Amino acid sequence: MNYFLFRNSCILLLMTIFLVHTYYTDASLTAAFFICTVILTLYFITPLLKKLRVISYITIVLILFCSVFVSLNIMYALPILAFFIIEGAFLLQAKFYYFLIGILTVIGMIFVLLRWLPLYGMLMLIALSLCSLGMSHYIQAYSEKSILYQELLGQYRALKRLSVEQDQLVRAEERTKIARDIHDSVGHNLTALLMQAEMISIEYGYDALDDIKQLARKSLNETRYAVRQLKSSEAYGITSVLHLIRRLEMESRLHIRFTIEKGVLSLPISNKQSIVLYRVLQECLTNAMKYSDSKEVDIILGKDSLQHISFQVKNKSMKQTPLVHGFGLKNMTERIQEIGGELRIHKTEQQFIVDGSFPMKGRV
């Protein structure tokens, strides 16, 4: 937001200086206003053009040079021209920026030969262009390194998640093996002991065997319970989702603020709903890592008036770009709809917000 205001303040200040100078000369103030209006219009629609931005910048350059034909002093248009040369280094791809500088140089040389532009003005433009070319090269190299870093970071996270999943699979196999061994050995022996104690009690009527039977039965029940626990997964429901999100937080270096309403952790949700909730929150956090202006993310889990489980994910987004529903957002929406829920995605001036809800287990 600060960068956006700074850019707008600079261009408006330069336009004001240009108009004030025109007012105190014999030049046409109407023509100056027209030129400023066209340039501002192109300036504010340029972010929407994407691949056609270079055409917008070339048009602005031509308009500024054409100001000489309406008796305007082109030297006072040079600061505006310098502004767009510098900004182009940040917004245009290298090949398009080189093309823009080439056109600017050719037009400038023609104006110098026709004596419509002083030689020192052209030298200033050349010096500024060379500096901007160096800056453009640096920005391009930094951007490529940043993209490479994000790709490597994404691969690292994918490998780490795969490692965690494999580790969970190994632990599950170990638990299953231990449960099978306990069931086959200890459980069988306790069952045999219980049956023998029962037979001796019936045959001989020893009262002391009642204590042995109770102890054996208790041990058998505890063994069966331990086997069931070992065969089950580590966690279910929203608690397991929170555990996975906390693990993702450590991997991604995000700062997640959880707000959990009273009673939410005990709400019943199916295994499929747990997976969908985790995947949706994971996609929200991935988007925050890629596009957010901050490392802070707010996640709110609650229950709405329809007794549905609701969630909200908010992160800062100062970039004034239109909301585009890409593959990730569409995939989130489809996942929520599969479990009977709905997803709402919207953007304000300062935040990107994802709201969603789905019915509890048994109410789909």
Task: Itemize the secondary structure elements and their pairings.
Elements: H1 2-23, H2 29-49, H3 53-66, H4 78-91, H5 94-113, H6 119-204, H7 208-231, H8 237-252, E1 255-260, H9 271-291, E2 296-303, E3 308-316, H10 327-338, E4 342-347, E5 351-359
Helix pairs in contact: 1-2, 2-3, 3-4, 3-5, 4-6, 5-6, 6-7, 8-9, 9-10
Domain Signal transduction histidine kinase subgroup 3 dimerisation and phosphoacceptor: 174-233
GO molecular function: ATP binding; phosphorelay sensor kinase activity; protein dimerization activity
Catalytic activity: ATP + protein L-histidine = ADP + protein N-phospho-L-histidine
Low confidence ranges:
none
CATH class division of the largest domain:
Alpha Beta
Helix content: 55-70%
E-strand count: 5
Protein structure class: alpha+beta
Give the domain tally.
Answer: 3
From the structure provided, what is the oligomeric state, counting identical versus distinct chains? single chain
Sheet with the most strands?
Answer: 5 strands, mixed
The radius of gyration is: 35 Å
Strand proportion, as a percent range, falls in 5-15%
CATH superfamily of the largest domain: Histidine kinase-like ATPase, C-terminal domain
Number of helices, counting only DSSP H or I runs of 4 residues or more? 10
Shape: elongated
The SSE order reads: HHHHHHHHEHEEHEE
End-to-end separation in angstroms reads: 43 Å
